[in-house]
Design brief:
Layout (H helix, E strand, L loop, with lengths): L6 E2 L23 H4 L30 E6 L3 H11 L5 E7 L7 H11 L4 E3 L2 H5 L6 E4 L6 H10 L3 E5 L6 H13 L4 E4 L6 H11 L6 E9 L20 H5 L9 H5 L11 H4 L2 H11 L8 E7 L11 E7 L4 E7 L10 H4 L14 E5 L3 E5 L4 E6 L3 E6 L5 H14 L7 H19 L4 E5 L4 E2 L3 H6 L15
Parallel strand pairs: 2-3, 2-5, 3-4, 5-6, 6-7, 8-11
Antiparallel strand pairs: 1-15, 8-12, 9-10, 9-16, 10-11, 12-13, 13-14, 14-15, 16-17
Helix pairs in contact: 2-3, 5-6, 6-14, 11-14
Length: 477
Amino acid sequence: MKRRKFFQVSTAGVAGLAITTSCNTQPDNKKTEDIISGLPSEQPDYRKTIKSEFTSVKPKPASDKVILALIGAGSWGTTLILEAANSGENILIKYVCDVDDERGGRAIAELEKIQGFRPIAVRDMRKVYEDREVDGVFIETPEHWHALASIWACQAGKDVYVEKTVSHSIFEGQQMIKAAMKYERIVQCGMQNRSADYALTARDYIKSGELGDIVSVHVRELLDGPVPLNEKENSAPPDTIDWNMWLGPAPEVPYNISRHKSWTFYWDYSGGYVTSGGSIHQLDMTRMVLGYPGFPKSVYCAGGRYFLDKREVPDYQMTTFDFGNWVMTLETGLCTPYMQKEGLDVRMGKIYPKWMQNSTRVDILGTKKMMYLGRMGGGWQVFDKDEKLVAQDKGIFPLKAHILNYIDCIRTRKQPNGSIVEGHKSSVHIHLANLAYRAGNKQLLFSPEYEAILNDSKASSLAQLNYRKGFEISNEV
């Protein structure tokens, strides 16, 4: 990726990035030996499998076509695969796969126009994996399918582009890494800001010390809801859907159109608005620009269904991550219609977001200055006192760049910008936020070394998913 220099509006001294404030996270009524008694005996085994480069598959010449397939043909999956087809990178989309026959028609029709070949429509992704011609897949299913679909793809020798949030539990992310490393498959996580030049310049600016020591970071995903849910009664599944395959690893339940069409409102298929709303985009980019600070030592989440009824997931959450010397908050909700995401004039143009009512902004507060960071082309700006603008950099929506990076890595076997290792680390933050909420708005103490919750048996139990027969994710991948 070519990096552009950020625009410096005023000069300042240079100092090393440092961290300042500290939080005491150990409850007074808990003894240290009680907290750590449940630690695993070993660190997660995936860490020993991580490789910096893959050598088992030869690079693919630029003259050879890259054969791809779409798995999950909803609106975003369709957008993604059409962007790939229009990239001009000598690729062919051979399959459009969805368990629901009512989806995928637009993708197939548009792809036929673009490439002169009508993609094959299939219901079962395993039909795609059986085709030795297929080099890579785009996994755009509901979240509860991300891990198993990715693991199956790696086992079948396919490279993977998997949508955020990449996993449905901490364990699943660990197993996805093991599969990618064992079979030496490219796994690009769908967090496009990692392919944005302005994210790199923001990282360089912070590293230079111009902000001073980092005091706190505030990440937002405040959507312009509310959206009501009128939950329907169970019924027989329509002939147009393979309900068993739609459920996949999730618990077996009767067909319900609310679960099918509004799956983001159910814990069995989604991480709630923290995941489906897209806050992981901002959180992941924040981790990147801060130089990968690692896992938090504790997480506290408060929230609830304050305004919207008849759903499992909260309509508002505020999560605090304690990193020992600084604090990050993640605020998500569906109750603020006056907040707005970036429009196309920002994403594809030279205009910066209107920060005050931008629903996805990140505030990075230093001891010298502060930075507003925007996703999806929003860029960043740094301010001193009296709202004095001192530095900035802009960009455009990096979706095409992220897809091109994936295709390039299929050819070259280089590691992608959005590697599964970093995708897992960002996803762990999301899982911890939800576990803290679901355990009763608790503070969870977390071991970065063992990736384990230390002080709450309910949260630890919720973190362990049960899989249906035929759709298991086992420790051996």
